[in-house]
Amino acid sequence: MGLKSYLIGDRDDLSKNLRSNNDKRDTNRCCHSLHKRRKRRICIEYESNPEVINAIKDRTTKFFETQGRRPRLLVTKMGQDGHDRGFKVVASAYADLGFDVDISPMFQTPAEAAKMAVENDVHVVGASSLAAGHKSLIPALIEELKKLGGEDIVVVAGGVIPPADYDFLFEAGVAAVFGPGTPIPDSADRTLALLEKKYLG
Ligand code: B12
Q1: pLDDT tens digit sequence for 142-163
Q2: Which of 83, 104, 189, 192 has the most ligand 1 atoms within 8 A of CB, as the residue to mutate?
Q3: Does ligand 1 lie within 6 Å of residue 129's CB atom?
Q4: DSSP state of 105
Q5: What residue's CA is closest to ligand 1, atom 22?
Q6: Which contacts qualify for 52-56: CB closer than 8 Å, 24 or more apart?
Q7: Ligand 1 within 6 A of 190 CB?
Q8: Which of 42, 116, 153, 173 is the most core-located residue (most Cβ within 10 A)?
Q9: Does 133 sit in the ligand 1 pocket, CB within 6 Å?
Q10: Class of residue 26 by CB neighbours under 10 A (exposed 0-12, middle 13-18, buried 19+)
């Protein structure tokens, strides 16, 4: 059984089918309870706050009306971080909220991510980091953006980032950090507020 089957399977089936203690230990440590809990919570938030969702959609539409295009976000994953689920969730949620969303390939170098951001003329890059590379990769991304003339592009970060590292990232130029469990509408609200301040005055 591959990792994909672990993730999409039913928990009871998984327990029956796990081949070895190593499989069981790794899967339990890494995936199940936390992942299932978080997935459920996102759905509830999404469904239970139509006013919040509609208010954000109205604001992205207003941004479009005044700027001629929707707020454009590149969600990227850099380095050896293979956790693709979160950044896909974030990308589709932001698209639902009225952002134009680009999603990078996995395993980008900071230079590749910066090039994509500049070429696609995005307003904001969201760097998703779950594998502890945030303190090297995200400042490197900001440096690469500067080299390519993309210093105006807002950089936000999310994923498994310990609060103790937030100030380090802010000093490197990150505008906001969204740790695990941040409701996506909250992060979209904050990201949009940064763009409204910058572009709508
Ligand atoms: C599922 C999972 C896996 C799956 C990944 C499946 C997939 N296709 O993505 C598998 C089993 C493959 C896996 C593998 C590994 N994993 Co893992 N995994 C997880 C787990 C349980 C959940 C991650 C997830 O999908 N979360 C759901 C998404 C939606 O959340 P998210 O990405 O964090 O996004 C949220 C926020 O960032 C924020 N957010 C809100 N708005 C915005 C806006 C933007 C722009 C952004 C970016 C974010 C953001 O909101 C989102 C929702 O709350 C976490 C534990 C955890 N609590 O996070 C460990 C975890 C990330 N894994 C971990 C580890 C160690 C590994 C492995 C190294 C294990 C191993 N020994 O092999 C490998 C690494 C593989 C690799 N190359 O990277 C560690 C990382 C430790 C660290 N950072 O220091 C964690 C934290 C578990 C732990 N407690 O130790 N993992």
Answers
A1: 999 999 999 999 999 999 999 9
A2: 83
A3: no
A4: P
A5: 35
A6: 52/185, 52/189, 53/96, 53/97, 53/185, 56/97, 56/98, 56/185, 56/188, 56/189, 56/192
A7: no
A8: 153
A9: no
A10: middle
* pTM for the whole structure: 0.84
Distance (angstroms) between ligand 1 centre and the Cα of 83 equals 5
Give the separation between CA 105 and CA 97, rounded to whole angstroms: 22
Determine whether 105 is exposed, middle or buried from the number of CB atoms within 10 Å of its CB (0-12, 13-18, 19+). Answer: exposed
Helix spans in 68-107 (H): 84-96
Give me 161's structure tokens: 């980032």
Report the atom number in ligand 1 closest to the C-alpha of 161. Answer: 83
Residue nearest to atom 84 of ligand 1 (CA): 132
User: CA-to-CA distance for 126 and 149, rounded, in angstroms?
Assistant: 18
Could you tell me whether strands 176-178 and 72-76 are parallel, antiparallel, or unpaired per DSSP bridges? unpaired
Dist. CA 159 → ligand 1 center (Å): 7
pLDDT per residue over 38-95, tens digit each? 444 444 455 557 899 999 999 999 999 999 999 999 999 999 999 999 999 999 999 9
- The answer to whether 183 and 193 have CB atoms below 8 angstroms apart is no
Q: Which DSSP category does 164 fall into?
A: G
